[in-house]
Amino acid sequence: HVQLVESGGGSAQVGGSLRLSCSASADALMYMAWFRQTPGGEREGVAAIESDFSTYYSDSVKGRFTISRDNNKSTFYLQMNNLQPEDTAMYYCAASHSPLLPMKGYLAPKEYNYWGQGTQVTVS
User: Fold this and answer.
1) Residues 81, 86, 92, CA angle at the centre, nearest 5°?
2) Distance CA 96, CA 102 (A)
3) Is residue 48 over pLDDT 90?
4) What's the CA gap between 8 and 17, in Å, rounded?
5) Mean local confidence (pLDDT), 104-115
6) How far apart are the first and last CA of the chain?
7) pLDDT tens digits for 16-28?
8) Which residue, 7, 77, 85, is CA-closest to 48?
9) Does residue 95 contact residue 114 with C-beta atoms inside 8 Å?
10) SS3 of residue 119 by DSSP
């Protein structure tokens, strides 16, 4: 069983930056991703990264957020720049080994089977 632990959430001003980190208890996770969810809303895929460092972003964050990974530390990151009030949400990191994921969608929550506990990001 893989455990994921997020850190780095908090408050930021509009136009500011935050960096989220997610530490995994296992090495060589094939797919890693960040999702976010607002109260009453659906979980939304934000960014994903493969083991070969290919990256995928939702249109809402493209150009502002950057996902990266450090395989030596089993950690991946989400650098969030030019934050906007609509970025306010609970952010979750997730991981998957599913070989079907490229066909099902890199930002589809149901394709990820390991999840962190979430970290709140508030932009005002």
Assistant:
1) 75
2) 11
3) yes
4) 11
5) 94
6) 37
7) 999 999 999 987 7
8) 77
9) yes
10) strand
Q: Which residue has the tokens 């296992």?
A: 26
Q: In the structure encoding, which two tokens stand for residue 30, read together? A: 């094939």
User: In sequence order, what are the residues at sequence separation of 6 or more whose Cβ sits closer than 8 angstroms to the Cβ of residue 66?
Assistant: 47, 55, 78, 79, 81
CA 24: distance to chain centroid?
13
- Other beta carbons within 10 angstroms of residue 47's beta carbon come to 25
- According to DSSP, the residues that pair with 95 across neighbouring strands are 32, 114
102 Cβ contact partners less than 8 Å away, ≥ 6 residues apart: none
Give residue 72's pLDDT band: very low, low, confident or very high (50, 70, 90). confident
CB 18 within 8 A of CB 10: yes
| Overall average pLDDT of the 50-77 stretch | 94
Specify the pLDDT at position 98: 87
Q: What would the two tokens of residue 108 be? A: 């589809």
- What are the backbone dihedrals phi and psi of residue 9, each rounded to the nearest 5 degrees, phi first? -70, 175
